[in-house]
Design brief:
Layout (H helix, E strand, L loop, with lengths): L6 E3 L34 H52 L24 H5 L5 H4 L26 E3 L2 E7 L15 E8 L13 E3 L15 E3 L8 E4 L14 E4 L3
Parallel strand pairs: 1-2
Antiparallel strand pairs: 3-4, 3-5, 6-7, 7-8
Length: about 260
């Protein structure tokens, strides 16, 4: 991973190892003696009863761990999405455009960005956040390709930095306006994206992540944040798939952050 300045988003791995107890209260029990004073040692039955009590208490703690951990993931996802929205707003403030719009669109759409080898669908996909990480106008000679302190205009990223940054394989059925599904259609390989904290395995060959392009796939990682409708500032928004790890077009338990409302 490369060091990046700007917004820092916390890795989904933060949640997979924690030494903090999920219990908010201490359980106090008063156990009455079950051994008669004449006994010189525990009987087998008495030992089994004690083991059963301890097992029940341990099972209760495990059952409580899941909801508390998911609540922590939800809170972190909301915080990350707020920071991601700020990063995109900063991009807009610096350049006058949202990512993939104006000069940051493809040359075939009137912009200044050459069509990548991966194709225009790969470029326009809502999960592709590459323009927040790497200068899309570098080498084009466009006025916005470098920061001008006098006009206070130009790309001056990277705008985000994240341990959740990686490359995701995702379905091309999901359109820039948010219609469709990220787990349908042909697979677009290795989109540069940002993962949310809701760690899970991929959905078949979809939503599979790599830390680096060409690296072995990860066993599990988060779901990608999506930038939807960037062509319409009044409708532009970020969508997170939420605790059920399933894209619901901004409905259900999806998280939705409007950029300018």
């Amino acid at each position: 991973m490369t060091n990046r300045s700007g917004i820092f988003l916390v890795s989904p791995e933060y949640y997979t190892n924690t030494d903090h107890s999920p219990l908010g209260a201490t359980i106090s029990m008063k156990v009455q003696p079950i051994i008669k004073e004449s006994h010189g040692a525990f009987t087998l039955l008495e030992l089994m009863i004690v083991v059963g009590i301890l097992s029940a208490l341990a099972g209760g703690a495990v059952m409580l761990l899941g909801p508390v951990e998911e609540q922590a993931r939800s809170q972190m996802s909301i915080a990350e999405m707020a920071q991601l929205r700020e990063a995109i707003q900063n991009f807009h403030t610096d350049t006058g455009f949202l990512p993939k719009q104006g000069p940051f669109a493809l040359t075939t759409d009137g912009g200044s960005v050459p069509v990548p080898a991966e194709g225009s669908t790969w470029f326009k996909h809502p999960a592709n956040l590459q323009q927040l990480l790497e200068n899309p106008l570098e080498g084009t000679g466009h006025a916005l390709s470098t920061w001008d302190p006098d006009s206070k205009r130009g790309w001056r990223g990277p705008y985000i930095s994240s341990f959740g940054e990686g490359y995701v394989d995702i379905g091309d059925n999901l359109a820039p306006d948010g219609s469709g599904s990220p787990t349908a259609g042909n697979i677009l390989a290795e989109l540069p994206s940002i993962a949310d904290p809701f760690v899970a395995k991929g959905d078949g060959s979809y939503l599979v992540w790599r830390f680096q392009s060409g690296a072995d796939p990860l066993n599990q990682w988060g779901r990608p944040y999506l930038l939807v409708d960037p062509h319409d500032e009044s409708a532009a928004r970020i969508i997170g798939m939420g605790a059920n790890r399933t894209y619901e077009a901004g409905l259900g338990d999806d998280y939705v952050f409007n950029l300018f409302q």
